[in-house]
């Protein structure tokens, strides 16, 4: 059924399109879905991705930038020469597909374990951290006049948000308290420079090929804020997938990341990056607890969500390794 | 008194069956879900085996650290409050050691294959 709807939609803007095939849902939360499909036209077929809130769903939840903003950001990144899919079409009411957009499908891998272990990425791994540093700098440098309206965050606001969320669980976690206290005591205050921040720049949201990074995805958490947040988030141990001695995604060093950032004309502040790494570690821990809550209160009563709740202790050991390292 | 086999033995038998007999026959997303399910059973088994001992030593440490009595959750609430208020911190004798031991005991149940945990076990 969605293939018929998509077929009618693409016919209205893709030259010569005769329909779509191979539509399959890649992921779906309660309010947002991602579909892959192929646009069929006289010269062959073209891979495309639909990202949408199905009909009947209103505004995006709390922190989300919204699908229209995501489409704008992705297109701006593409226009700036950053690895990003081209946005092919922003959904219109007459498409009857809900709200969202259709973008070019980029082939490659997003699964961290494969990127970190498979032979085909052996040449990409040593260059990735530097490459990503350049890409992050490019994101932070996107022309501000063209950017959509997004929430503005600061370290102070982020700490307050995390604390409120943690307190709402009403379950004592002395290590999280220690993390919150550490962050409050070292809150650098408003950043001198406020830029676009991707907000979720890590494994899973990056398409990697044997040649390196091919696309940055998922701008759902984009906002304005301290640019060091993106550099700290990608260093969080939860995204190293076992490669704990390589802080950047389990494949690279902070120095390589910062060198790439510098090559693209921006300067990293290692202390502030570390501050955001601690913040990010706590943030992921609290997100794990949040998934447990959603498991308990429904509607997603799945084993996966329940088990993610039992991963919050991973961030506790990582916080202790950051804040209270043992011996040497 | 309930009879044998114990809950741990029953769960292990089910987990082993799913792992050895069913898992090789399942493909795709359900294979992933099955793996999560087996992991959950393994976790429950570890908790049933280790929880009591870990809770007892955690309670004893908390009583010592706080100089007060209470259930494990009450003691953890009290410690959390003291950390939030800055009444105890990493300079407080025994706090870092307590948090480390407690966290290691949690990981032993939750995620014994987590790389940070394995590293800390080696360097203990």
Summarize the structure in words.
The complex is a heterodimer of chains A (328) and B (124). Chain A is an alpha+beta fold. Chain A has helices spanning 2-11, 67-79, 112-117, 125-140, 155-169, 174-186, 228-233, 254-263, 270-297, 303-309, 312-323, and strands at residues 19-28, 33-41, 44-53, 87-90, 99-104, 195-197, 206-209, 212-216, 223-225. The termini of chain A are far apart. In chain A, the strands form three sheets. Chain A has a five-stranded antiparallel beta sheet. A two-stranded antiparallel ribbon of chain A has the order 6-9. Chain A folds into two domains: 2-6 and 15-104, Phosphorylase Kinase, domain 1; 112-323, Aminoglycoside 3'-phosphotransferase, Chain: A, domain 2. In chain A, 41% of the residues lie in helices and 16% in strands. Chain A is globular. In chain A, a hairpin with a 4-residue loop joins strand 1 (19-28) and strand 2. In chain A, helix 4 packs across helix 8 (254-263), helix 5 packs antiparallel against helix 6 and helix 6 (174-186) packs across helix 11. Chain B is mainly alpha-helical and 124 residues long. Chain B has one domain (7-122). Chain B has five helices and no strands. The N and C termini of chain B lie far apart (40 Å). The mean pLDDT of chain B is 96.
């Amino acid at each position: 059924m969605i293939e018929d709807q998509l077929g009618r939609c693409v016919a209205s803007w893709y030259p010569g399109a005769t329909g779509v095939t191979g539509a399959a849902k890649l992921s779906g939360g309660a309010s947002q879905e991602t579909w892959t499909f192929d646009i069929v036209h006289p010269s062959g077929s073209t891979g495309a991705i639909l990202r949408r809130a199905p009909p009947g769903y209103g505004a995006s939840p709390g922190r989300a930038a919204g699908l229209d903003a995501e489409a704008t950001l992705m297109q701006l990144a593409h226009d700036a020469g950053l690895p990003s899919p081209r946005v092919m079409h922003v959904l219109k009411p007459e498409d009857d597909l809900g709200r969202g957009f259709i973008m070019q499908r980029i082939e490659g891998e997003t699964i961290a374990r494969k990127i970190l272990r498979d032979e085909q990425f052996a040449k990409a791994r040593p260059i990735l951290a530097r490459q990503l540093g350049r890409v992050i700098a490019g994101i932070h440098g996107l022309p501000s006049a063209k950017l959509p309206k997004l929430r503005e965050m600061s370290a102070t606001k982020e700490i307050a948000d995390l604390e409120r969320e943690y307190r709402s669980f009403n379950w004592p976690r002395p290590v999280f308290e220690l993390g919150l206290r550490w962050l409050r005591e070292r809150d650098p205050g408003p950043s001198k420079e406020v830029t676009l921040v991707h907000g979720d720049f890590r494994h899973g949201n990056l398409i990697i090929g044997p040649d390196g990074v091919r696309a940055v995805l998922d701008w759902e958490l984009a906002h304005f804020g301290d640019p060091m947040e993106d550099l700290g988030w990608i260093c969080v141990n939860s995204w190293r997938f076992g490669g704990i001695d390589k802080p950047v995604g389990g494949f690279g060093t902070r120095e390589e990341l910062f060198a790439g950032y510098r090559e693209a004309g921006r300067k990293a502040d290692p202390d502030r990056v570390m501050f955001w790494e601690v913040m990010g570690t706590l943030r992921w821990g609290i997100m794990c607890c949040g998934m447990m809550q959603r498991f308990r209160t429904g509607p997603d009563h799945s084993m996966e969500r329940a088990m993610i709740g039992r991963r919050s202790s991973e961030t506790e050991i990582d916080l202790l390794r950051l804040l209270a390292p043992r011996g040497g | 008194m309930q009879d044998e086999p114990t809950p741990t033995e029953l769960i292990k038998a089910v987990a082993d069956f799913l792992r050895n007999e069913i898992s090789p026959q399942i493909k795709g997303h359900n294979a992933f879900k099955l793996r999560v399910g087996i992991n959950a059973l393994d976790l429950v088994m570890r908790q049933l085996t280790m929880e009591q001992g870990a809770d007892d030593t955690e309670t004893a440490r908390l009583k010592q650290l706080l100089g007060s009595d209470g259930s494990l959750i009450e003691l953890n609430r009290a410690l959390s409050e003291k950390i939030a208020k800055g009444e105890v911190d990493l300079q407080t004798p025994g706090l870092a050691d307590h948090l480390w031991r407690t966290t290691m005991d949690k990981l032993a149940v939750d995620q014994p294959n987590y790389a940070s945990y394995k590293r800390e076990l080696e360097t203990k």
